[in-house]
């Protein structure tokens, strides 16, 4: 890998990078202003431009009320084709960088009378090289540093350890995110590499909106996406979950119930009793400071936010269990990923709707029915508690309607709320 060695030789980075992100931008596409997560990567962030050049916007994020004291706080830097942009120090830690979604860029040109030139955008591929940080960032800049924000949260929590909130406020959300999203995904990243090193600043609605926006960002205009999320409304045959029973209030709901019945006819939920005592056991079983219930039952949800145990299975492929397409029945979570789905479709998506897979994949997976089976695990396999948010009727639609999308279809399917949408602009 001569290029990464050259980075070190030229003094761009002290050691060779170990992380690479490749982004492809078509004319008109960009990336929202952001600061690469402090705790995830070390100081130097290198962006190599291949194909077209682009204007990158750098904006200062004030760390106190004085801001930049009348100094400019927005610079546009043209990144020419085949150039390397090295972000380090304040440029990496205190300034956001982003690319405005435009078809053209105004760039410097010494030969023109105005000193400027309007350049049409071309397809650009950027290679962003980073070095993964082990441990926390110590810059202590309150406005931009996630490590600092986390440490503040922890010290506040220590002071008020009596807090027994089951609702997610900002403070709980940050801690929850650290323990049940970031740390878990660090451990199981090999199986879910797509989520690795993505910032999860909040696990509230704002975060769910950001997740859908992220899906939109990677779609071209007119491109379609499918979101599947677990529904609060669950039904097995004619047996409704307690939530569904209590929330059947108007004629629209009645209609909805009929469609639930129709859909669930084909379902073979694992046998389980939705009794009051079962629900009590769910409520009683909580984990960590977040005081969220641990989910132990497939068809009942007692509240929208919960922790779902996930066993990190040690690889033990069983000969002869593989179907024609190479799916291992008992390893459905991993085998589906191998087939090209971005995330497994069995089970709920993590916090936000994050499943972007082709509809055919989903149908096929459900037809296989292998989603019902738990992966084989050995007794010593670690168990992680992942944070999940389960959606109520209308919630996913309300979320998507805040964005620039056409909702093509919105429906209930086998315990999930589903939306097919099209990117408008
Ligand atoms: O495309 C680029 O040059 C920047 C990409 C970037 O900022 C990122 O992936 O975090
Ligand atoms: Fe970035």
TrEMBL record:
InterPro entries (UniProt xref): AlkB-like, AlkB_tRNA_MeTrf/Diox, Oxoglu/Fe-dep_dioxygenase_dom, SAM-dependent_MTases_sf
Pfam families in the record, alphabetically? 2OG-FeII_Oxy_2
BP GO annotations: tRNA methylation; tRNA wobble uridine modification
Example GO molecular function term?
A: tRNA binding
Ranges for domain Fe2OG dioxygenase: 16-133
Kindly list the GO CC terms recorded for this protein: cytoplasm; nucleus
Query: What Gene3D superfamilies would the database entry show?
Result: 2.60.120.1520, Vaccinia Virus protein VP39
Q: Which UniProt keywords apply?
A: Methyltransferase, Transferase
Name listed for the protein in its UniProt record: Fe2OG dioxygenase domain-containing protein
């Amino acid at each position: 890998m001569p290029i990464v060695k050259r980075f070190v030789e030229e003094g761009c980075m002290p050691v060779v990078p170990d992380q690479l992100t490749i982004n492809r931008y078509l004319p008109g596409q960009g990336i929202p202003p952001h600061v690469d997560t402090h705790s995830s990567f070390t100081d130097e962030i290198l962006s190599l431009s291949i194909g077209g050049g682009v204007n990158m916007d750098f904006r200062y994020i004030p760390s106190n009320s004085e801001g930049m004291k009348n100094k400019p706080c927005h610079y546009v830097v043209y990144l020419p084709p085949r150039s390397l942009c090295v972000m380090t120090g304040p440029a990496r830690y205190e300034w956001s960088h982003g690319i405005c979604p435009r078809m053209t860029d105004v760039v410097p040109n010494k030969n023109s009378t105005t000193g400027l030139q309007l350049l049409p955008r071309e397809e650009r591929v950027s290679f962003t090289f980073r070095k993964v940080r082990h441990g926390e960032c110590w810059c202590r800049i309150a406005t931009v540093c996630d490590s600092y924000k986390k440490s503040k949260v922890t010290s506040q929590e220590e002071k008020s350890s009596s807090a027994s909130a089951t609702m997610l406020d900002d403070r709980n959300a940050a801690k929850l995110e650290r323990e049940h999203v970031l740390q878990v995904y660090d451990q199981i990243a090999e199986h879910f590499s797509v989520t690795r090193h993505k910032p999860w600043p909040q696990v509230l609605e704002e975060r769910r909106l950001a997740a859908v926006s992220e899906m939109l960002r990677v779609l071209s205009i007119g491109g379609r996406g499918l979101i599947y999320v677990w529904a609060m409304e669950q039904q097995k045959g004619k047996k409704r979950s307690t939530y569904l029973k209590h929330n059947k209030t108007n004629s629209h709901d009645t209609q909805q119930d009929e469609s639930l019945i129709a859909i669930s006819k084909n379902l073979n939920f694992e046998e389980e009793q939705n009794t009051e005592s079962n629900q009590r056991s769910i409520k009683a079983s909580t984990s960590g400071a977040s005081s969220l219930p641990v989910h132990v039952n497939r068809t009942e949800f007692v509240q929208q936010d919960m922790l779902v145990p996930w066993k990190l299975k040690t690889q033990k492929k069983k000969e002869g269990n593989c179907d024609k397409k190479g799916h291992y029945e008992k390893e459905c979570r991993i085998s589906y990923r191998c087939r090209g789905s971005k995330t497994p479709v069995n089970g709920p998506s993590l916090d936000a709707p994050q499943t972007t897979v082709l509809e055919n994949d989903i149908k096929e997976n459900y037809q296989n029915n292998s989603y019902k089976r738990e992966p084989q695990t050995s007794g010593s396999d670690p168990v992680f508690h992942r944070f999940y948010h389960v959606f109520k009727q209308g919630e996913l639609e309300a979320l998507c309607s805040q964005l620039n999308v056409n909702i093509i279809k919105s429906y209930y399917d086998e315990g999930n709320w589903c939306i097919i949408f099209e990117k408008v602009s």
